[in-house]
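Q: What structure does this chain adopt?
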Amino acid sequence: MPKAALLLYDPAPSPWASKVRQLCAIQGLRFSAVDTAQLDRPIRDLAQGLPAPGSAGEPLPEPLLLLCHLSSPQLDKVLQGLRNAGVPRTCLKAILTPTNAGWTPRVLYDELCREREQLS
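A:
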C-alpha cells in the first residue's frame, strides 16, 4: 500500500505551512509541496511521489490540501492536527479517491469551488 501523504499547494506561502510540514513529520506522513508547474499532472502521480515535470501555467488563487492513502484513524488525527496548526477551516481540502485520482489539482480545485458555492 502506498505511504500516507499530505500534498500542499500553497501559492502565498501561508503562515501555517511550516506547521503542516511538522505535523507530517510527527505523524509519519510523507509531505509534498506541489508547485504551479505540477498543477496539470494527475493527482495519482503526485500522491505516489512520481517525478512531476510540468509546464508552468497560471497559479491557483488559494491553498489546496490533498490527503492521500490515510486510514480513518489517521484522517481524524490529521484533521485535528491541521486545526491545531492554524489551518483555516475555509482552506480547501480533499481526500484522494478513485474518482479524483485521474484529475489534476486544477480540475479538483474547480470542483471544490463549485461545491463551496453550492453550500453558501
